[in-house]
Design brief:
Layout lengths: L33 H9 L2 E6 L1 H8 L20 H6 L2 E7 L12 H18 L4 E3 L3 H9 L3 E8 L8 H9 L2 E5 L23 H13 L2 E3 L5 H10 L5 E2 L16 H10 L2 E4 L3 H4 L1 H8 L1 H11 L3 H14 L7 H14 L5 E3 L19 H10 L4 H28 L1
This protein binds zinc ion.
Length: 409
Protein backbone atom coordinates (compact mmCIF):
# COMPACT_ATOMS: atom_id res chain seq x y z
CA UNK A 1 0.00 0.00 0.00
CA UNK A 2 1.57 3.24 -1.10
CA UNK A 3 -0.20 5.86 0.97
CA UNK A 4 -3.18 6.25 3.30
CA UNK A 5 -4.51 8.82 0.83
CA UNK A 6 -4.47 6.48 -2.14
CA UNK A 7 -6.73 7.52 -4.98
CA UNK A 8 -9.39 5.05 -6.01
CA UNK A 9 -8.85 5.58 -9.70
CA UNK A 10 -7.83 2.11 -10.82
CA UNK A 11 -8.20 1.72 -14.53
CA UNK A 12 -8.76 5.43 -15.03
CA UNK A 13 -5.18 6.55 -15.38
CA UNK A 14 -4.65 9.70 -17.41
CA UNK A 15 -2.50 9.39 -20.50
CA UNK A 16 0.49 11.43 -19.44
CA UNK A 17 3.63 12.05 -21.41
CA UNK A 18 6.87 10.95 -19.85
CA UNK A 19 9.04 14.05 -19.62
CA UNK A 20 11.67 13.00 -17.14
CA UNK A 21 13.41 9.91 -18.54
CA UNK A 22 16.90 9.60 -17.09
CA UNK A 23 18.62 10.33 -20.40
CA UNK A 24 16.32 13.26 -21.14
CA UNK A 25 14.57 11.41 -23.95
CA UNK A 26 11.67 8.99 -23.91
CA UNK A 27 12.90 5.42 -24.02
CA UNK A 28 11.46 2.88 -26.41
CA UNK A 29 8.92 0.27 -25.33
CA UNK A 30 10.42 -3.14 -24.54
CA UNK A 31 9.45 -5.95 -26.95
CA UNK A 32 9.36 -9.40 -25.33
CA UNK A 33 11.19 -12.01 -27.42
CA UNK A 34 10.92 -15.81 -27.42
CA UNK A 35 14.35 -15.98 -25.76
CA UNK A 36 13.11 -13.89 -22.81
CA UNK A 37 9.85 -15.87 -22.60
CA UNK A 38 11.86 -19.07 -22.36
CA UNK A 39 14.07 -17.72 -19.56
CA UNK A 40 11.01 -16.34 -17.74
CA UNK A 41 9.17 -19.67 -18.00
CA UNK A 42 12.20 -21.64 -16.76
CA UNK A 43 12.00 -19.85 -13.39
CA UNK A 44 9.14 -18.21 -11.52
CA UNK A 45 8.26 -14.87 -9.91
CA UNK A 46 8.12 -14.63 -6.09
CA UNK A 47 6.72 -11.13 -5.52
CA UNK A 48 7.12 -9.44 -2.12
CA UNK A 49 3.92 -7.42 -1.90
CA UNK A 50 0.42 -7.58 -3.41
CA UNK A 51 -2.56 -5.82 -1.81
CA UNK A 52 -5.33 -7.92 -3.37
CA UNK A 53 -6.83 -8.78 0.07
CA UNK A 54 -7.39 -5.06 0.77
CA UNK A 55 -9.10 -4.63 -2.62
CA UNK A 56 -11.31 -7.63 -1.85
CA UNK A 57 -12.25 -5.97 1.45
CA UNK A 58 -12.92 -2.49 0.07
CA UNK A 59 -14.16 -3.16 -3.47
CA UNK A 60 -15.82 -6.57 -3.07
CA UNK A 61 -17.29 -6.59 0.45
CA UNK A 62 -14.60 -9.10 1.54
CA UNK A 63 -16.08 -11.77 -0.72
CA UNK A 64 -14.83 -13.61 -3.78
CA UNK A 65 -18.49 -13.83 -4.84
CA UNK A 66 -18.16 -10.15 -5.79
CA UNK A 67 -14.68 -10.49 -7.30
CA UNK A 68 -14.23 -14.01 -8.65
CA UNK A 69 -10.52 -14.39 -9.46
CA UNK A 70 -11.37 -16.95 -12.18
CA UNK A 71 -13.04 -14.12 -14.12
CA UNK A 72 -11.16 -11.20 -15.72
CA UNK A 73 -11.08 -8.36 -13.16
CA UNK A 74 -9.95 -5.35 -15.22
CA UNK A 75 -10.47 -2.91 -12.31
CA UNK A 76 -7.87 -4.82 -10.29
CA UNK A 77 -4.21 -5.55 -11.07
CA UNK A 78 -4.64 -9.21 -10.13
CA UNK A 79 -6.68 -12.22 -11.28
CA UNK A 80 -5.79 -15.87 -11.88
CA UNK A 81 -5.33 -15.68 -15.66
CA UNK A 82 -2.94 -12.72 -15.38
CA UNK A 83 -0.99 -14.35 -12.50
CA UNK A 84 -0.49 -17.32 -14.85
CA UNK A 85 0.64 -15.11 -17.76
CA UNK A 86 3.12 -13.37 -15.44
CA UNK A 87 4.40 -16.79 -14.23
CA UNK A 88 3.88 -15.85 -10.60
CA UNK A 89 4.84 -18.99 -8.65
CA UNK A 90 4.87 -17.48 -5.17
CA UNK A 91 3.38 -14.37 -3.61
CA UNK A 92 3.40 -12.57 -0.28
CA UNK A 93 -0.25 -11.44 0.09
CA UNK A 94 -0.36 -8.29 2.17
CA UNK A 95 -2.88 -8.20 5.03
CA UNK A 96 -2.63 -4.40 5.22
CA UNK A 97 -4.93 -2.40 7.49
CA UNK A 98 -4.59 1.41 7.86
CA UNK A 99 -2.40 2.81 10.62
CA UNK A 100 -5.41 4.77 12.00
CA UNK A 101 -7.04 1.47 13.08
CA UNK A 102 -4.51 1.40 15.93
CA UNK A 103 -6.09 4.49 17.49
CA UNK A 104 -9.45 2.67 17.75
CA UNK A 105 -7.75 -0.57 18.92
CA UNK A 106 -9.03 -2.32 15.81
CA UNK A 107 -5.68 -2.98 14.15
CA UNK A 108 -5.28 -6.60 15.26
CA UNK A 109 -8.95 -7.44 14.72
CA UNK A 110 -8.95 -6.08 11.17
CA UNK A 111 -5.66 -7.82 10.40
CA UNK A 112 -7.26 -11.11 11.47
CA UNK A 113 -10.15 -10.31 9.10
CA UNK A 114 -7.64 -9.76 6.28
CA UNK A 115 -5.95 -13.08 7.08
CA UNK A 116 -9.40 -14.68 6.83
CA UNK A 117 -9.69 -13.27 3.28
CA UNK A 118 -6.39 -14.94 2.31
CA UNK A 119 -7.58 -18.20 3.88
CA UNK A 120 -10.87 -17.92 1.96
CA UNK A 121 -8.90 -17.45 -1.26
CA UNK A 122 -6.96 -20.70 -0.59
CA UNK A 123 -10.19 -22.56 0.13
CA UNK A 124 -12.07 -21.23 -2.88
CA UNK A 125 -9.29 -21.85 -5.44
CA UNK A 126 -7.48 -24.93 -4.09
CA UNK A 127 -6.23 -25.87 -7.57
CA UNK A 128 -4.52 -22.46 -7.90
CA UNK A 129 -3.22 -21.39 -4.47
CA UNK A 130 -1.71 -23.17 -1.49
CA UNK A 131 -0.46 -21.72 1.78
CA UNK A 132 3.31 -22.09 2.33
CA UNK A 133 5.02 -21.98 5.73
CA UNK A 134 8.65 -22.42 4.70
CA UNK A 135 11.00 -21.90 1.76
CA UNK A 136 10.85 -25.67 1.17
CA UNK A 137 7.03 -25.43 1.01
CA UNK A 138 7.29 -22.65 -1.56
CA UNK A 139 9.48 -24.78 -3.83
CA UNK A 140 7.32 -27.89 -3.41
CA UNK A 141 4.03 -26.03 -4.07
CA UNK A 142 5.42 -24.11 -7.04
CA UNK A 143 6.57 -27.38 -8.61
CA UNK A 144 2.98 -28.71 -8.48
CA UNK A 145 1.92 -25.77 -10.66
CA UNK A 146 0.19 -23.85 -7.86
CA UNK A 147 0.99 -20.39 -6.52
CA UNK A 148 2.71 -20.72 -3.14
CA UNK A 149 1.11 -18.16 -0.85
CA UNK A 150 2.57 -16.47 2.20
CA UNK A 151 1.11 -13.70 4.37
CA UNK A 152 2.87 -10.38 4.91
CA UNK A 153 1.67 -8.18 7.78
CA UNK A 154 1.97 -4.51 6.79
CA UNK A 155 2.70 -2.42 9.82
CA UNK A 156 3.70 -3.14 13.43
CA UNK A 157 0.58 -1.26 14.59
CA UNK A 158 -1.18 -4.61 14.08
CA UNK A 159 0.44 -6.21 17.12
CA UNK A 160 -0.91 -3.44 19.38
CA UNK A 161 2.36 -3.38 21.36
CA UNK A 162 2.18 -7.09 22.27
CA UNK A 163 4.77 -9.79 21.47
CA UNK A 164 2.01 -12.33 22.13
CA UNK A 165 0.03 -10.89 19.24
CA UNK A 166 3.14 -11.10 17.03
CA UNK A 167 3.40 -14.83 17.79
CA UNK A 168 -0.30 -15.25 17.10
CA UNK A 169 0.11 -13.70 13.65
CA UNK A 170 3.10 -15.98 12.95
CA UNK A 171 1.00 -19.00 13.96
CA UNK A 172 -1.68 -17.88 11.47
CA UNK A 173 0.86 -17.88 8.63
CA UNK A 174 2.42 -14.41 8.67
CA UNK A 175 5.99 -14.77 7.40
CA UNK A 176 6.99 -11.12 7.41
CA UNK A 177 5.96 -8.01 9.27
CA UNK A 178 6.72 -4.50 8.03
CA UNK A 179 7.81 -2.74 11.23
CA UNK A 180 5.69 0.36 10.54
CA UNK A 181 3.28 1.60 7.91
CA UNK A 182 2.77 5.34 7.31
CA UNK A 183 2.76 6.39 10.98
CA UNK A 184 5.47 6.43 13.63
CA UNK A 185 4.60 3.93 16.40
CA UNK A 186 5.34 3.97 20.13
CA UNK A 187 8.43 1.83 19.31
CA UNK A 188 9.56 2.63 15.73
CA UNK A 189 9.90 5.66 13.46
CA UNK A 190 8.22 5.61 10.03
CA UNK A 191 9.65 7.14 6.84
CA UNK A 192 6.56 9.30 6.25
CA UNK A 193 5.86 10.64 9.75
CA UNK A 194 7.66 12.64 12.43
CA UNK A 195 10.57 10.66 13.94
CA UNK A 196 10.16 10.36 17.71
CA UNK A 197 12.72 7.74 18.77
CA UNK A 198 15.72 8.17 16.45
CA UNK A 199 14.85 4.69 15.10
CA UNK A 200 13.77 1.77 17.31
CA UNK A 201 13.09 1.92 21.07
CA UNK A 202 14.20 -0.90 23.39
CA UNK A 203 10.81 -2.59 22.82
CA UNK A 204 11.28 -2.12 19.07
CA UNK A 205 14.56 -4.03 19.33
CA UNK A 206 12.71 -6.77 21.27
CA UNK A 207 10.19 -7.00 18.42
CA UNK A 208 13.06 -7.61 15.96
CA UNK A 209 14.58 -10.29 18.28
CA UNK A 210 11.21 -12.01 18.67
CA UNK A 211 10.75 -12.04 14.90
CA UNK A 212 14.22 -13.61 14.56
CA UNK A 213 13.26 -16.23 17.15
CA UNK A 214 10.00 -17.06 15.35
CA UNK A 215 11.58 -17.15 11.89
CA UNK A 216 9.46 -14.23 10.68
CA UNK A 217 11.18 -11.89 8.22
CA UNK A 218 11.85 -8.34 9.42
CA UNK A 219 10.49 -6.04 6.68
CA UNK A 220 12.01 -2.55 6.53
CA UNK A 221 9.79 -0.99 3.87
CA UNK A 222 7.99 2.13 5.21
CA UNK A 223 10.44 2.72 8.12
CA UNK A 224 12.78 5.68 8.59
CA UNK A 225 16.49 5.33 7.72
CA UNK A 226 17.32 5.33 11.47
CA UNK A 227 14.90 2.42 12.03
CA UNK A 228 16.51 0.59 9.08
CA UNK A 229 19.97 1.01 10.65
CA UNK A 230 18.78 -0.01 14.14
CA UNK A 231 17.01 -3.14 12.85
CA UNK A 232 20.03 -4.11 10.74
CA UNK A 233 22.25 -3.76 13.82
CA UNK A 234 20.00 -5.91 16.04
CA UNK A 235 18.83 -8.68 13.66
CA UNK A 236 20.60 -12.04 13.47
CA UNK A 237 18.71 -12.99 10.29
CA UNK A 238 18.66 -11.40 6.84
CA UNK A 239 16.01 -8.68 6.43
CA UNK A 240 13.80 -7.77 3.50
CA UNK A 241 12.35 -4.62 2.02
CA UNK A 242 9.11 -6.16 0.71
CA UNK A 243 8.23 -3.20 -1.55
CA UNK A 244 10.83 -0.40 -1.70
CA UNK A 245 12.91 1.15 -4.46
CA UNK A 246 16.27 2.99 -4.57
CA UNK A 247 16.58 6.53 -3.21
CA UNK A 248 19.63 7.42 -5.35
CA UNK A 249 17.42 7.02 -8.45
CA UNK A 250 14.28 8.72 -7.13
CA UNK A 251 14.54 10.85 -3.99
CA UNK A 252 11.46 9.81 -2.02
CA UNK A 253 11.53 8.93 1.72
CA UNK A 254 9.90 5.53 0.96
CA UNK A 255 13.00 4.52 -1.04
CA UNK A 256 16.19 2.94 0.35
CA UNK A 257 19.32 5.12 0.66
CA UNK A 258 22.66 3.82 -0.63
CA UNK A 259 24.27 3.66 2.85
CA UNK A 260 21.50 1.25 3.90
CA UNK A 261 22.01 -0.82 0.72
CA UNK A 262 25.63 -1.33 1.81
CA UNK A 263 24.37 -2.72 5.15
CA UNK A 264 21.83 -4.95 3.39
CA UNK A 265 24.72 -6.54 1.51
CA UNK A 266 26.55 -7.26 4.80
CA UNK A 267 23.29 -8.59 6.30
CA UNK A 268 22.53 -10.88 3.33
CA UNK A 269 19.04 -9.39 2.84
CA UNK A 270 17.00 -8.42 -0.21
CA UNK A 271 15.39 -5.19 -1.46
CA UNK A 272 12.26 -6.01 -3.48
CA UNK A 273 11.57 -3.17 -5.90
CA UNK A 274 8.23 -1.30 -5.71
CA UNK A 275 6.64 -0.38 -9.08
CA UNK A 276 4.63 2.69 -7.93
CA UNK A 277 5.08 5.67 -10.31
CA UNK A 278 5.43 8.02 -7.33
CA UNK A 279 8.47 6.07 -6.09
CA UNK A 280 10.20 5.03 -9.32
CA UNK A 281 9.96 8.06 -11.60
CA UNK A 282 12.50 10.70 -10.49
CA UNK A 283 10.27 13.68 -11.30
CA UNK A 284 7.20 12.05 -9.71
CA UNK A 285 9.19 11.30 -6.56
CA UNK A 286 10.31 14.93 -6.46
CA UNK A 287 6.70 16.13 -6.74
CA UNK A 288 5.60 13.92 -3.85
CA UNK A 289 8.70 14.05 -1.65
CA UNK A 290 7.42 17.04 0.36
CA UNK A 291 4.06 15.29 0.90
CA UNK A 292 4.57 15.27 4.66
CA UNK A 293 5.16 19.03 4.97
CA UNK A 294 2.20 19.62 2.65
CA UNK A 295 -0.06 17.48 4.87
CA UNK A 296 1.01 19.45 7.92
CA UNK A 297 0.38 22.75 6.18
CA UNK A 298 -3.06 21.66 4.90
CA UNK A 299 -4.10 20.13 8.24
CA UNK A 300 -3.34 23.43 9.97
CA UNK A 301 -5.34 25.27 7.35
CA UNK A 302 -8.25 22.77 7.20
CA UNK A 303 -8.86 21.22 10.66
CA UNK A 304 -11.97 19.44 9.35
CA UNK A 305 -10.94 16.05 7.88
CA UNK A 306 -13.23 16.22 4.83
CA UNK A 307 -11.94 19.71 3.95
CA UNK A 308 -8.37 18.52 4.41
CA UNK A 309 -8.92 15.55 2.10
CA UNK A 310 -10.41 17.80 -0.56
CA UNK A 311 -7.50 20.24 -0.32
CA UNK A 312 -5.05 17.34 -0.51
CA UNK A 313 -6.77 16.07 -3.67
CA UNK A 314 -6.52 19.54 -5.21
CA UNK A 315 -2.80 19.70 -4.40
CA UNK A 316 -2.27 16.26 -5.96
CA UNK A 317 -4.15 17.35 -9.09
CA UNK A 318 -1.97 20.47 -9.33
CA UNK A 319 1.17 18.31 -8.95
CA UNK A 320 0.27 15.28 -11.06
CA UNK A 321 2.42 12.17 -11.11
CA UNK A 322 4.09 10.98 -14.28
CA UNK A 323 3.68 7.21 -14.70
CA UNK A 324 7.26 6.37 -15.66
CA UNK A 325 7.90 3.08 -17.41
CA UNK A 326 9.60 -0.31 -17.32
CA UNK A 327 13.00 1.34 -17.84
CA UNK A 328 12.64 3.34 -14.61
CA UNK A 329 11.88 0.17 -12.63
CA UNK A 330 14.93 -1.61 -14.05
CA UNK A 331 17.04 1.50 -13.22
CA UNK A 332 16.09 0.88 -9.56
CA UNK A 333 16.98 -2.82 -9.84
CA UNK A 334 20.38 -1.84 -11.28
CA UNK A 335 21.05 0.70 -8.52
CA UNK A 336 20.62 -2.03 -5.88
CA UNK A 337 22.88 -4.30 -7.94
CA UNK A 338 25.49 -1.55 -8.24
CA UNK A 339 25.63 -0.85 -4.49
CA UNK A 340 24.66 -4.19 -2.88
CA UNK A 341 25.04 -6.79 -5.64
CA UNK A 342 22.86 -9.07 -7.75
CA UNK A 343 22.11 -11.31 -4.73
CA UNK A 344 20.28 -8.55 -2.88
CA UNK A 345 17.48 -7.43 -5.22
CA UNK A 346 13.99 -8.77 -5.92
CA UNK A 347 10.51 -7.66 -6.99
CA UNK A 348 7.83 -6.24 -4.67
CA UNK A 349 5.35 -4.75 -7.12
CA UNK A 350 2.74 -3.39 -4.64
CA UNK A 351 0.11 -4.29 -7.26
CA UNK A 352 -3.43 -3.53 -6.11
CA UNK A 353 -2.01 -1.16 -3.50
CA UNK A 354 -0.86 1.62 -5.82
CA UNK A 355 -2.99 4.19 -7.65
CA UNK A 356 -0.64 4.54 -10.63
CA UNK A 357 1.58 2.04 -12.44
CA UNK A 358 4.44 2.52 -14.93
CA UNK A 359 3.99 1.95 -18.65
CA UNK A 360 4.35 -1.74 -19.56
CA UNK A 361 3.96 -2.82 -15.92
CA UNK A 362 0.21 -2.43 -15.71
CA UNK A 363 -0.65 -5.64 -13.83
CA UNK A 364 0.58 -9.07 -12.68
CA UNK A 365 0.75 -10.38 -16.25
CA UNK A 366 3.64 -8.07 -17.16
CA UNK A 367 6.64 -9.57 -15.31
CA UNK A 368 8.12 -11.07 -18.54
CA UNK A 369 8.83 -7.50 -19.70
CA UNK A 370 11.25 -7.15 -16.77
CA UNK A 371 13.01 -10.35 -17.79
CA UNK A 372 13.35 -8.96 -21.31
CA UNK A 373 14.76 -5.63 -20.17
CA UNK A 374 17.26 -7.36 -17.86
CA UNK A 375 18.30 -9.51 -20.82
CA UNK A 376 18.62 -6.35 -22.93
CA UNK A 377 20.95 -4.90 -20.27
CA UNK A 378 23.21 -7.94 -20.38
CA UNK A 379 22.07 -10.06 -17.42
CA UNK A 380 22.23 -13.86 -17.71
CA UNK A 381 19.38 -16.33 -17.10
CA UNK A 382 20.75 -17.43 -13.67
CA UNK A 383 21.08 -13.76 -12.63
CA UNK A 384 17.52 -13.02 -13.76
CA UNK A 385 16.25 -16.02 -11.79
CA UNK A 386 17.94 -14.69 -8.65
CA UNK A 387 16.03 -11.41 -9.02
CA UNK A 388 12.71 -13.13 -9.83
CA UNK A 389 12.73 -15.54 -6.85
CA UNK A 390 16.15 -16.96 -5.93
CA UNK A 391 17.20 -14.17 -3.59
CA UNK A 392 14.01 -14.05 -1.52
CA UNK A 393 14.02 -17.87 -1.25
CA UNK A 394 17.60 -17.76 0.08
CA UNK A 395 16.64 -15.08 2.62
CA UNK A 396 13.63 -17.12 3.83
CA UNK A 397 15.82 -20.19 4.25
CA UNK A 398 18.51 -18.24 6.13
CA UNK A 399 15.87 -16.72 8.44
CA UNK A 400 14.56 -20.23 9.19
CA UNK A 401 18.12 -21.37 10.00
CA UNK A 402 18.67 -18.31 12.23
CA UNK A 403 15.46 -19.15 14.15
CA UNK A 404 16.77 -22.69 14.77
CA UNK A 405 20.11 -21.25 16.01
CA UNK A 406 18.29 -18.89 18.39
CA UNK A 407 16.12 -21.75 19.69
CA UNK A 408 19.19 -23.94 20.30
CA UNK A 409 20.75 -21.29 22.55
ZN1 LIG B 1 3.08 -0.29 1.61
Amino acid sequence: MSSPLRLIVLGLLPALTVLGAANGAERQPVVVTDAARKIHAAGFVFDGHNDLPWMIRTEAASSFDHADLRQPLPKLHTDIARLRTGNVGAQFWSVYVPAETAQEHKALLQTLEQIAIVQAMMKRYPDVFEMASTAEDVERIQKTGKIASMIGVEGGHCIEDSLGNLKRLYDLGARYMTLTHSDTLAWADAATDEPRHAGLTAFGEDVVREMNRLGMLVDLSHVSPETMHDALRVTVAPVIFSHSSARAVADHPRNVPDDVLVKVKENGGVVMINFYSGFIHPESARRRANSLEKNRELKAKFPNDADFKQARKRWEAENPLLPGDIHDVVDHIEQVIKVAGIEHVGLGSDFDGIPMVPKQLEDVSTYPVITQELLNRGYTAPQIHLIMSGNILRVLRKAEEAAKRVAAK
